[in-house]
Write a structure and sequence with these properties.
The chain contains 13 helices and 15 strands. The protein has about 400 residues and is an alpha+beta fold. It has an eight-stranded antiparallel β-sheet with strand order 3-2-1-14-13-12-11-10, sandwiched between helices. A three-stranded mixed β-sheet has the order 6-5-15.
Length: about 400
C-alpha cells in the first residue's frame, strides 16, 4: 500500500515517480483538505484531527493536525488513539457477520437463545421475539437514553448508553434495558439504539468468550489493527477529548453532559475504558486509531478479505430494513454497520449511491463509496463538530471536488 506524505518536499519527489494526472489530482486533493483542516483548527471548531483518504485501496492522503492534548501541547499524530464511540459498531457488526458465515449464529435466531432472561415487553405487556437481524439493523424496538428527556424510561431505569457508568456489568445493564417497554414491535420500525450492545452480549454467549476476544479473533487481529480494542495501555497516545464551546473547545471533565439532538443530553465518562469492570459496549466502548480503521474499510473494499466473504459485504452495503430506516435522514437507509445512501439528490451529497457512512459522538465520521472506491476516515477529539458539524461535510466536499475532474485510470 502506498502512503504519500503531505509534506510538500515529497510532492516534488513524487513528480518524477507518478503520472502527471495522478500528481495533479493528488496535489489538488491535498491543498483542499489542508485548507479545510487548517480552517477548522484556526476557527477553534476542533482541537485536533487525523484524516485519511484512500482511493482504489491506496492511501492518497494522510494528515495529523492540531493537538491530541492542547493543554499539554502534545501534537496529534497518525498513531493517536481515540475513544471510538459508535465507530465500534461496524467492527462488532463484522464479527457478528463472520459468526453467521461460520453458522455459529443465525440472523433469524431469537436473542433469548443466547440471553434467556432478556425479554423486554411491549407497552401492552406482551413479550415479542427479537432476532439477531433486528439487533444488527436497529429494528428491535430498543432505544438510546440520549434520545429521551431526563425523565424518560431509560433514565428512570438508569440504563447506560455505553459511554458512562464505569464499573457497570453487562448483566445489570441488560436487566435495566429489559425492564423498559419496547418503543415498537420488533421489525416494524427503525430506531438507532443500544441494539449493538445487546448484540455484543449475544456474541459473547455464543462463543463463550469475552466480546473483546471475539472482535480480536474475527476482525482486529486478521486486519493487524494492533491499536484497536476495548482498552489500552498506551496512555501517552490517547487523545484528550473536548467539547465544542466558545471561544474554544473545552476538555471533557470526569463526567460531562452534552446537549444533542433537539434538547436531549448525552453523558460521557472519558475514563470509563480504564475501569476493567465496565461492560464491553459493542456500540460505543472501543478505542483505536484512524489508520487501523482505514484497514477495516479497505478490507470491505476488497470484498471483505480477509475477514468476510464478498457476498456478506454485498449485504452490508444494502438496505436491510425494507425502507424503515429512511426516517433516519432523507435519502439514507441502513445496512449492516452503517447508513446506506439510497438517493444522493435527496441527501444533498456528492457521494455515490450505495455509500456506507456513520460516525461517533466523540467526534468521528467515516464513509466508503463503493462506486468511486473512495474511503475516508475522519477522527477528531472534539465532540460534536467532528461527527456531524461543518468539518466532516467540508472534508467530504473537498474530496469530491478534487475527484470531479480526475482523469486517473485505474
Amino acid at each position: 500500500m502506498k502512503q504519500y506524505s503531505t509534506t510538500p518536499i515529497f510532492f516534488w519527489l513524487l513528480l518524477f515517480l507518478l503520472p502527471t494526472t495522478t500528481f495533479a489530482n493528488q496535489l489538488e486533493l491535498t491543498e483542499r483538505l489542508n485548507t479545510v483542516i487548517d480552517q477548522a483548527i484556526d476557527e477553534q471548531r476542533i482541537v485536533g484531527a487525523v484524516v485519511l483518504v484512500s482511493e482504489h485501496g491506496e492511501l492518497v492522503y494522510q494528515r495529523a493536525a492540531g493537538f491530541a492534548d492542547r493543554e499539554a501541547q502534545r501534537p496529534m499524530t497518525l498513531d493517536t488513539i481515540f475513544r471510538l464511540s459508535s465507530v465500534s459498531k461496524p467492527l462488532v457488526t463484522a464479527a457478528a457477520l463472520k459468526l453467521i458465515e461460520e453458522h455459529k449464529i443465525s440472523l433469524d435466531d431469537p436473542v433469548t437463545k443466547y440471553l434467556p432472561n432478556f425479554k423486554p415487553k411491549l407497552a401492552d405487556g406482551t413479550t415479542p421475539i427479537i432476532t439477531i437481524k433486528q439487533l444488527l439493523t436497529h429494528t428491535a424496538g430498543l432505544n438510546y437514553g440520549f434520545f429521551e428527556g431526563d425523565t424518560g424510561p431509560y433514565h428512570q431505569a438508569k440504563v447506560s448508553d455505553g459511554l458512562d457508568q464505569p464499573g457497570l456489568s453487562m448483566e445489570e445493564n441488560l436487566q435495566r434495558i429489559a425492564s423498559v417497554p419496547l418503543i415498537y414491535k420488533p421489525g416494524t420500525n427503525w430506531k438507532y439504539s443500544l441494539a449493538i450492545d445487546v448484540l455484543g452480549a449475544v456474541l459473547s454467549k455464543a462463543t463463550n468468550q469475552p466480546l473483546s476476544e471475539v472482535v480480536a479473533t474475527y476482525v482486529t487481529k486478521p486486519l493487524a489493527m494492533q491499536d484497536t480494542g476495548f482498552t489500552t495501555n498506551a496512555i501517552d497516545r490517547l487523545a484528550t477529548p473536548y467539547t465544542n464551546d466558545n471561544p474554544e473547545p473545552q476538555p471533557m471533565k470526569e463526567q460531562t453532559e452534552l446537549p444533542i439532538m433537539g434538547g436531549s443530553k448525552i453523558s460521557f465518562v472519558p475514563n470509563r475504558y480504564a475501569n476493567l469492570n465496565s461492560y464491553p459496549s459493542g456500540g460505543a466502548g472501543m478505542l483505536g486509531t484512524a489508520p487501523d480503521f482505514m484497514h477495516f474499510l479497505q478490507a470491505i473494499e476488497d470484498n471483505g478479505q480477509p475477514i468476510l466473504t464478498g457476498s456478506t459485504v454485498q449485504q452490508m452495503l444494502k438496505d436491510q430494513t425494507n425502507g424503515l430506516a429512511q426516517s433516519y435522514d432523507l435519502g439514507w437507509s441502513f445496512g449492516y454497520g452503517g447508513a446506506i445512501l439510497e438517493n444522493p439528490t435527496l441527501a444533498k451529497t456528492p457521494q455515490s449511491q450505495g455509500t456506507i457512512q456513520w460516525g461517533g459522538v466523540y467526534g468521528h465520521n467515516w464513509f466508503y463509496d463503493p462506486v468511486k472506491k473512495i474511503a475516508v476516515v475522519i477522527f477528531t477529539n472534539t465532540a460534536l463538530e467532528g461527527m456531524y458539524g461543518q468539518f466532516p461535510n467540508d472534508i467530504r466536499d473537498a474530496v469530491y471536488n478534487s475527484y470531479s475532474n480526475s482523469t486517473i485510470e485505474k
